[in-house]
């Protein structure tokens, strides 16, 4: 087995049985904003689509997509209001298992780089998609702008990956190598973080050498703040 059982979507959905879709809704809600980032979000959505295609989950595909979109949206809204209420005060212990200060730093940098669009892009980046809503809330991002962009992200992410799983659900190779395909999906979802890591190293080396960075000269933004006057 390539993944622990609680991270293995196939095992999890089989264990949930008739409650598979409802359990998935709960996982998506939690991962999208309730401070628990280590959950099989992308791979679970893919597996749900695949199970629907195979007839294992007896729910219309359109209904599953609608419910998953709602769960993703409400999860982010919850994270936003947690951030508004508590700020980043929960992220104080560098040795914490989940609420590490570095996660807030990384997410803040992600937000600074992409602006409100980060709420869409972060859907496809594990860990960042959990904490970006906290950063948006702590920075008092305009609620209307937040709801708009996080809604767009939910509509693209949840149905998109579910539909991909459904489209590949009857491909024999995928069916026979489901766990390997799910692991590959997780690795692919990590590519943006890896690329950003190397770009950050390049910018840091250029800054240390006194040369220009990729983004050119910028004024430093206050940490843990998301301004409301960012361009859409």
Automatic annotation (TrEMBL):
Chief place where the protein resides: membrane
Keyword Ribosomal protein listed: no
Taxonomy, superkingdom: Bacteria
Transmembrane segment boundaries: 20-53, 60-82, 120-139, 146-168, 180-199
Localization annotation: Cell membrane
Region feature (Disordered): 208-232
Topology of the protein relative to the lipid bilayer: Multi-pass membrane protein
InterPro entries recorded: DedA-like, VTT_dom
Limits of the VTT domain: 39-166
Keywords, alphabetical: Cell membrane, Membrane, Transmembrane, Transmembrane helix
Family per record: Belongs to the DedA family.
Name under which the protein is recorded: VTT domain-containing protein
Lineage per the UniProt record: Bacteria, Bacillati, Actinomycetota, Actinomycetes, Propionibacteriales
């Amino acid at each position: 087995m390539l993944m622990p059982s609680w991270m293995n979507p196939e095992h999890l959905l089989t264990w949930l049985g008739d409650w598979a879709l409802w359990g998935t809704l709960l996982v998506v809600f939690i991962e999208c904003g309730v401070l628990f980032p280590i959950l099989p979000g992308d791979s679970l959505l893919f597996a749900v689509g695949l199970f629907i295609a195979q007839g294992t989950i007896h729910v219309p595909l359109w209904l599953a997509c609608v419910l998953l979109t709602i769960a993703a949206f409400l999860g982010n809204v919850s994270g936003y209001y947690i951030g508004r209420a508590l700020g980043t005060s929960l992220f104080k212990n560098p040795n914490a298992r989940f609420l590490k200060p570095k996660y807030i730093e990384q997410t803040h940098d992600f937000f600074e780089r992409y602006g409100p669009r980060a709420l869409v892009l972060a859907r496809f980046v594990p860990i960042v998609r959990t904490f970006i809503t906290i950063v948006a809330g702590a920075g008092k991002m305009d609620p209307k702008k937040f709801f708009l962009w996080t809604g767009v992200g939910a509509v693209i992410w949840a149905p998109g990956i579910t539909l991909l799983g459904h489209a590949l659900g009857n491909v024999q190779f995928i069916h026979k190598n489901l766990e390997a395909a799910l692991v590959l999906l997780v690795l692919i979802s990590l590519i943006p973080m890896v690329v950003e890591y190397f770009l950050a190293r390049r910018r840091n080396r250029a800054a240390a050498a006194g040369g220009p960075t990729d983004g050119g000269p910028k004024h430093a933004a206050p940490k843990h703040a998301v301004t409301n006057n960012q361009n859409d």
